Known about the structure:
The structure is a single chain. The chain is mainly alpha-helical and 61 residues long. The chain has helices spanning 5-22, 25-40, 45-49. It is flat and about 40 Å long.
Amino acid sequence: MKLSKELFSAGISLGIETMRKNLPEPLKIVEQGVIAACKDIGLDPEHEINGIPLSAGSWCG
């Protein structure tokens, strides 16, 4: 069975959401800080990690 790009992206997004729900509170604070820092320099990690393909040089992590 070949996995479509859309199905793969949906699986990644679901995995990320599940991971976030299970993070201890201190790590949730760190994650939000990283997201804010990325946005401060013009990156949108929320957009990129939720199923949108990462383009070269635009990933913050």
